[in-house]
């Protein structure tokens, strides 16, 4: 999500070796200008090549490679991403210091070129002085339990669509994306629901654009970011052209929505029969537009349209991708572990009983479901969170951290620590039964939503949406792999078998009540 997750481009070894040879002279120059800190003050560092630094040691899954390096070099190490020194934290204790107890010393996140293009400026543009106030508005107006309940009917509508996907296999990735983008589009932008005219199409368009933007932010950590002399490679790959195209399409879309909301407000104020701005009809975009004229609430800051667009985009990028990934990875883990899938379905079906709908109160009785989602978030956490040190030198873990240094928190490594987790690579939801782990950021062994001032404000919204979607998908249907997919190799890596296509089989309830039979028939006749 946003620049919070850092992945590396797959690096062609030939390019790397040539670059290393050609640039070794330049390295001598760079070294002559290198840090004024003596190396004994700095954390341990793996051996590195000229210019490319440690990039050759970081495969497609940088978080996994960094974890391996940290086992040898310690919980705080200095790794060179090309010419950029990164201070990599792999222990919960040090992560807590950076993210929470000493957060003022590590206030910002890292910027990338893709980030600057998509948000029309850097991190400061969105997360500047006004952000604390906007965060509060997000939590109370968009992500509150009341708003979550008010939007429940949208989730229900989308889940019913499953029945339309009767021609197997069902594209679950598409279903989860539509569900996440529709729910957020309504809460944030007030876009129409699927039943209202072009609602579905608009939701799909923004959902797809946002996913493209997330991929650009996550995957396209461009060569130029680490080795400026290689930025021509990024141009050659058309990365910035693509980012600019996606950015322009998103901004045009958001501008249209903002203009529509302004027009609705104008007509309503002029008594021209426009939409009534009642509590339920006021969306996040309306609240931001209102804040534009409330400098008093915003600590004297006047929100610009550009900032409004950037804030709306942050909500989408942060909200959609992470929820979809969690849903996809949970279903993949369940298909790989049929025992766990059966146990979970038994729990869901026994709680739902003869009812034809799943209510919010039912979810609170599904303890094993919560364990399953927690375990998915342990194994498939947004792998890395970034921070930038303030403009003063500081110390961490007894080592020197220079002013403005880039810090990477390897969340994945912390969630894999064998000192905390028995058989850490296995999917074992039972490990969370009767434990203290939650998402409030109190614990430094497990914190998929991060810690401290910048902790994810969408925790409740995300957990409810994810649990609700899984309970529906697993209650009425059993799931199988399509014939063409080999069970042994299914889901060996995170990116494998995506988009996720599975065969839904309507579940045969023993002695099912008339209500359930009617529900299932209703679904299959849709
Ligand atoms: C499973 C789902 C989710 C996960 C695992 C997740 C995780 C995270 C993480 C790790 C961060 C970075 C915090 C940091 O830098 O310290 C974050 C930030 C953020 N998330 Fe989430 N998130 C999820 C869903 C959502 C949803 C559904 C929304 C909104 C609807 C949301 C909105 C945000 C926002 C606005 C930020 C930026 C907060 C700030 O910088 O102050 N997230 N999230």
UniProtKB/TrEMBL annotation:
Its cofactor is heme. Keywords: Heme, Iron, Membrane, Metal-binding, Monooxygenase, Oxidoreductase, Transmembrane, Transmembrane helix. The chain crosses the membrane at residues 12-30. Pfam families: p450. One of its GO terms (molecular function) is heme binding. PROSITE patterns: CYTOCHROME_P450. InterPro entries: Cyt_P450, Cyt_P450_CS, Cyt_P450_E_grp-I, Cyt_P450_sf. Heme binds at residue 456. It comes from the Eukaryota. Belongs to the cytochrome P450 family. This is Cytochrome P450. It comes from Kalanchoe fedtschenkoi.
């Amino acid at each position: 999500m946003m620049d919070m997750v850092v992945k590396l481009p797959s690096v062609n070894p030939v390019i790397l070796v040539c670059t290393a040879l050609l640039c070794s002279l330049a390295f001598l120059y760079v070294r002559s200008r290198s840090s004024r800190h003596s190396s004994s003050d700095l954390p341990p560092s793996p051996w590195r090549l000229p210019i490319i630094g440690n990039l050759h040691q970081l495969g497609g899954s940088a978080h996994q490679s960094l974890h391996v390096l940290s086992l040898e070099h310690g919980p705080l190490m200095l790794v060179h991403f090309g010419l950029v020194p990164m201070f990599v934290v792999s222990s919960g204790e040090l992560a807590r210091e950076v993210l929470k107890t000493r957060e003022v010393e590590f206030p910002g996140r890292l910027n990338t070129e893709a980030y600057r293009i998509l948000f029309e400026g850097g991190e400061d543009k969105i997360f500047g002085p006004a952000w604390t106030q906007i965060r509060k508005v997000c939590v109370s107006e968009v992500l509150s339990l009341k708003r979550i309940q008010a939007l429940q009917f949208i989730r229900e509508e989308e889940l019913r669509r499953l029945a339309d996907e009767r021609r197997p296999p069902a594209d679950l990735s598409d279903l989860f994306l539509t569900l996440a983008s529709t729910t957020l589009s309504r809460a944030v932008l007030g876009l129409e629901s699927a039943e209202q005219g072009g609602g579905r199409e608009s939701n799909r368009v923004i959902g797809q654009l946002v996913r493209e933007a997330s991929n650009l932010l996550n995957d396209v950590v461009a060569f130029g970011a680490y080795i400026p002399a290689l930025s021509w490679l990024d141009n050659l790959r058309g990365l910035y052209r693509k980012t600019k195209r996606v950015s322009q399409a998103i901004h045009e879309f958001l501008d249209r929505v903002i203009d529509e909301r302004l027009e609705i407000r104008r007509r309503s104020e002029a008594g021209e029969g426009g939409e009534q701005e009642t509590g339920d009809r006021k969306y996040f975009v309306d609240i931001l537009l209102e804040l534009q004229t409330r400098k008093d609430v915003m600590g004297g800051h006047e929100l610009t349209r550009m900032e409004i667009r950037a804030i709306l985009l942050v909500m989408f990028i942060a909200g959609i991708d992470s929820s979809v990934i969690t849903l996809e990875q949970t279903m993949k883990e369940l298909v790989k572990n049929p025992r766990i899938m059966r146990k979970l379905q038994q729990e869901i079906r026994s709680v739902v009983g003869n009812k034809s709908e799943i209510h919010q109160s039912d979810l609170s009785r599904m303890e094993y479901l919560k364990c399953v989602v927690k375990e998915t978030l342990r194994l498939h956490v947004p792998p890395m969170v970034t921070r930038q040190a303030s403009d003063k030198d500081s110390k961490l873990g007894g080592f020197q951290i220079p002013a403005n240094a880039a810090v990477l928190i390897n969340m994945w490594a912390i969630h894999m620590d064998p000192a905390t987790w028995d058989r850490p690579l296995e999917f074992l939801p039972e490990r969370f039964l009767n434990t203290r782990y939650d998402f409030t950021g109190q614990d430094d062994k497990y914190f998929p939503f991060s810690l401290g001032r910048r902790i994810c404000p969408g925790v409740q919204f995300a957990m409810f949406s994810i649990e609700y979607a899984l309970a529906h998908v697993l209650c009425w249907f059993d799931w199988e792999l399509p014939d063409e997919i080999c069970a042994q190799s299914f889901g060996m890596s995170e990116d494998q078998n995506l988009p996720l296509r599975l065969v839904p089989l309507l579940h045969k309830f023993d002695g099912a009540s008339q209500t359930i039979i009617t529900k299932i028939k209703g679904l299959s006749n849709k």
